[in-house]
Automatic annotation (TrEMBL):
<keyword id="KW-0812">Transmembrane</keyword>
<keyword id="KW-1133">Transmembrane helix</keyword>
<dbReference type="GO" id="GO:0016020">
    <property type="term" value="C:membrane"/>
</dbReference>
<feature type="transmembrane region" description="Helical">
    <location>
        <begin position="187"/>
        <end position="211"/>
    </location>
</feature>
<feature type="transmembrane region" description="Helical">
    <location>
        <begin position="132"/>
        <end position="152"/>
    </location>
</feature>
<feature type="transmembrane region" description="Helical">
    <location>
        <begin position="266"/>
        <end position="283"/>
    </location>
</feature>
<keyword id="KW-0472">Membrane</keyword>
<dbReference type="Pfam" id="PF00001">
    <property type="entry name" value="7tm_1"/>
</dbReference>
<feature type="transmembrane region" description="Helical">
    <location>
        <begin position="20"/>
        <end position="42"/>
    </location>
</feature>
<dbReference type="InterPro" id="IPR000276">
    <property type="entry name" value="GPCR_Rhodpsn"/>
</dbReference>
<keyword id="KW-0807">Transducer</keyword>
<dbReference type="GO" id="GO:0004930">
    <property type="term" value="F:G protein-coupled receptor activity"/>
</dbReference>
<keyword id="KW-0675">Receptor</keyword>
<keyword id="KW-0297">G-protein coupled receptor</keyword>
<protein>
    <recommendedName>
        <fullName>G-protein coupled receptors family 1 profile domain-containing protein</fullName>
    </recommendedName>
</protein>
<feature type="transmembrane region" description="Helical">
    <location>
        <begin position="54"/>
        <end position="74"/>
    </location>
</feature>
<feature type="domain" description="G-protein coupled receptors family 1 profile">
    <location>
        <begin position="30"/>
        <end position="251"/>
    </location>
</feature>
Length: 296
């Protein structure tokens, strides 16, 4: 991709561009369908923690999906003429989408795990801290701190010639300069995602084990088990969409080269399939009229 000259910079190989085009087109179509169906289903039922977190997930997915057409345009044209600042926004948004989605997944799972351990205490906390206020705090932090920092600093240390006037989405060569701070941040974020996922999975397995010990062979038909199915689905989305990429991220940052950057783009694209998560909730009818604490 880079040969050290400003006038002779090759782009992604055609095979990678075609694969990325297929992936992002699928994500865009499926994501828009998923969001549309979920918004129609939710209507005004936002009183539960799970429903509020789902609305936040919808907002995060929509913000990301707005940038997907520009990715499709770039990989189709193999050229970028919309300015490097906007390129950084589009490039950074996929990372922001992954981290924010993981945060809201974790909130949902932690809340559901806590209700399995101490339902009365969780209900008391719920009454004191309404999830809408918590959501406002998270978005306030994101809009005033996280996004401005990402927009102004993302790719700012990119001293190589990989990003030219007609190229975009190739900021990985920052790692070729052995910038310790950026590498450390990537290691930290990836490690946190893997560690938190492992902790949540252990809790989920412990809860399932407790339910099994309580009901033995009748577990499948028990309401307590059925209530855990949605949590299991969210865990699977995290494990399938986020863990493989963040595991690969360690190797990518440590051994950066142009070929690995192309593979990183493919792996990163697979994280966006979490946009289909709302279809899971639709299929399981997660937001029935009395499926929340505020209905008690």
């Amino acid at each position: 991709m880079v040969n050290g000259s400003n006038t002779d910079v090759s782009h992604l190989p055609a095979s990678y561009r075609h694969a990325l085009l297929s992936l992002y087109t699928t994500v865009l179509i499926g994501g828009v369908l998923s969001m549309s169906l979920m918004i129609r289903m939710l209507k005004s039922n936002v009183c539960s923690v799970t429903a509020t977190a789902a609305l936040n997930l919808i907002a995060v997915h929509i913000l990301f999906l707005l940038t997907v057409p520009f990715r499709i345009y770039y990989y189709a044209a193999d050229s970028w003429d919309l300015g490097q600042k906007f390129c950084k926004v589009v490039s950074a948004m996929i990372h922001a989408h992954m981290y924010l989605t993981f945060v809201f997944y974790s909130i949902i799972l932690v809340y559901r795990h806590l209700t399995s351990f101490r339902p009365r205490q969780v209900e008391s906390i719920y009454r004191r801290l309404h999830p809408l206020w918590a959501s406002a705090a998270v978005w306030g932090l994101v809009l005033t701190v996280v996004i401005p920092v990402m927009v102004f600093n993302y790719g700012s240390l990119d001293h190589s010639n990989a990003t030219t006037d007609n190229q975009c989405l190739h900021f990985g060569n920052i790692f070729s300069n052995r910038e310790i701070t950026y590498a450390a941040l990537n290691y930290t974020f990836s490690a946190l995602i893997i560690i938190v996922t492992l902790a949540l999975a252990v809790c989920q397995l412990w809860i399932l084990g407790r339910v099994y010990r309580s009901h033995k062979g009748m577990i499948v038909g028990q309401q307590e088990f059925l209530a855990q199915i949605k949590s299991i689905y969210f865990m699977l989305v995290i494990i399938v969409c986020f863990v493989p990429y963040n595991t690969f991220r360690f190797y990518y940052v440590s051994n950066y080269n142009e070929d690995l950057e192309a593979k990183n783009e493919i792996a990163l694209a697979f994280t966006t399939f979490c946009c289909f998560d709302m279809l899971i909730l639709i299929g399981k009818e997660s937001f029935r009229p009395c499926d929340s604490i505020c209905c008690v």
